[in-house]
Protein backbone atom coordinates (compact mmCIF):
# COMPACT_ATOMS: atom_id res chain seq x y z
CA UNK A 1 0.00 0.00 0.00
CA UNK A 2 2.80 2.45 0.86
CA UNK A 3 4.51 1.49 -2.38
CA UNK A 4 1.41 2.49 -4.34
CA UNK A 5 1.17 5.89 -2.61
CA UNK A 6 4.89 6.47 -3.19
CA UNK A 7 4.45 5.62 -6.86
CA UNK A 8 1.53 8.06 -7.16
CA UNK A 9 3.58 10.84 -5.57
CA UNK A 10 6.51 10.08 -7.87
CA UNK A 11 4.25 10.16 -10.94
CA UNK A 12 2.68 13.40 -9.76
CA UNK A 13 6.11 14.99 -9.25
CA UNK A 14 7.18 13.83 -12.71
CA UNK A 15 4.12 15.49 -14.22
CA UNK A 16 4.84 18.68 -12.28
CA UNK A 17 8.45 18.71 -13.52
CA UNK A 18 7.26 18.20 -17.09
CA UNK A 19 4.76 21.03 -16.68
CA UNK A 20 7.48 23.26 -15.25
CA UNK A 21 9.73 22.55 -18.26
CA UNK A 22 6.86 23.44 -20.60
CA UNK A 23 6.28 26.69 -18.70
CA UNK A 24 9.98 27.60 -18.94
CA UNK A 25 9.92 26.93 -22.69
CA UNK A 26 6.78 29.05 -23.11
CA UNK A 27 8.33 31.85 -21.05
CA UNK A 28 11.39 31.79 -23.31
CA UNK A 29 9.19 31.92 -26.42
CA UNK A 30 7.29 34.86 -24.97
CA UNK A 31 10.54 36.65 -24.12
CA UNK A 32 11.86 36.09 -27.65
CA UNK A 33 8.60 37.29 -29.21
CA UNK A 34 8.64 40.37 -26.99
CA UNK A 35 12.22 41.19 -28.00
CA UNK A 36 11.38 40.69 -31.68
CA UNK A 37 8.36 42.98 -31.35
CA UNK A 38 10.49 45.65 -29.67
CA UNK A 39 13.09 45.44 -32.45
CA UNK A 40 10.37 45.67 -35.10
CA UNK A 41 8.86 48.73 -33.40
CA UNK A 42 12.32 50.36 -33.30
CA UNK A 43 12.81 49.64 -37.02
CA UNK A 44 9.43 51.17 -37.81
CA UNK A 45 10.28 54.24 -35.75
CA UNK A 46 13.63 54.62 -37.55
CA UNK A 47 11.92 54.32 -40.93
CA UNK A 48 9.33 56.93 -39.92
CA UNK A 49 12.08 59.31 -38.80
CA UNK A 50 13.94 58.76 -42.06
CA UNK A 51 10.78 59.51 -44.04
CA UNK A 52 10.18 62.68 -42.01
CA UNK A 53 13.77 63.83 -42.63
CA UNK A 54 13.42 63.12 -46.33
CA UNK A 55 10.10 64.95 -46.45
CA UNK A 56 11.61 67.99 -44.68
CA UNK A 57 14.54 68.04 -47.12
CA UNK A 58 12.11 67.88 -50.04
CA UNK A 59 10.09 70.75 -48.59
CA UNK A 60 13.25 72.84 -48.21
CA UNK A 61 14.88 71.81 -51.53
CA UNK A 62 12.38 70.24 -53.92
CA UNK A 63 15.08 69.43 -56.46
CA UNK A 64 17.50 67.76 -54.04
CA UNK A 65 16.46 64.30 -55.20
CA UNK A 66 17.21 65.17 -58.80
CA UNK A 67 20.74 66.27 -57.92
CA UNK A 68 21.66 62.97 -56.31
TrEMBL record:
Residues 2-54 form a coiled coil. Keywords: Coiled coil. This is Reticulocyte-binding protein 2-like a.
Amino acid sequence: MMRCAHQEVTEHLSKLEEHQKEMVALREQLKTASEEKKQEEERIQQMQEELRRHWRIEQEEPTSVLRR
